[in-house]
Amino acid sequence: LKFAKNTLAKQLGNYRPGQYIFLNVPAVSMFEWHPFSLTSSVYADHDEVAVRVLGNFTRSLSSAAVAAVEQRKQLYVRADGPYGQVPLDATRHASAVFVCGGIGVTPVIGFLRTLFDVDARTEPVLDTDSSVWENMSRADPPATLQHVHVIWAIQKEEHFNWFADVFRVCRAQARKNPNLPHLHISVYVTKLTSSSTLSPPLASGRPSLQPCLDQVLERVNGAPTFVFACGPCDMIKDAWDECVLQQARGRDITFHRETFKL
Description:
Blueprint: E1 2-4, H1 7-11, E2 20-24, E3 34-37, E4 46-48, H2 56-70, E5 78-83, E6 95-101, H3 106-115, E7 147-154, H4 164-176, E8 182-189, E9 202-204, H5 209-219, E10 225-230, H6 233-248, E11 253-258
Parallel strand pairs: 6-7, 6-10, 7-8, 8-9, 10-11
Antiparallel strand pairs: 1-4, 2-3, 2-5
């Protein structure tokens, strides 16, 4: 779904990647509000969310959206937000690791689109925050952030197509602009079929976080690393536990998780 940004929040520079927004769709319910991660760039002219049909509300939302398209009408939505802030500091962290499962990749997409400047910017963003986040996605980002790793576990091979175009564009941007961090993408398919033919960045099985983090830290010589996890509870717990073990070894790791339970 695409819809207009919150004008005031945009003018104040309150948008940050990794945020979420509450949506109400009157065609589905006048009173139900549900949170969705923003998958759009901070600098895009619109907000965007990706919706996977998993329950009654998203099923009804999908039906309403299909009906609107068939009737060539717009679907009216009300938005409240954005909310949240992920503490990734591009002038402090040498690498960022995004560990996600299934639809938990959505906030990561917002990060990638912003960091690799996927959406053209039509106007400057006011810098009202001392967190130096703005530096992360300017034309010449600071050299501190050297590597961005995406570790994404999906059940089916075709789920990769949800955001394959975004990954492709971000990789092209990273190769084209030497000032941008190196982008590493690893996608793990947990349920294969007899017709599965995986090729990089897809691989079979589940991610093993210890060797992944060891490799990341080796690339930046143990420099400060940010780890973000969003997905099933077991995945988040595993990522958290691994970060604690790495911290016990003296590694400088900041861990942040995102979960939605309403």
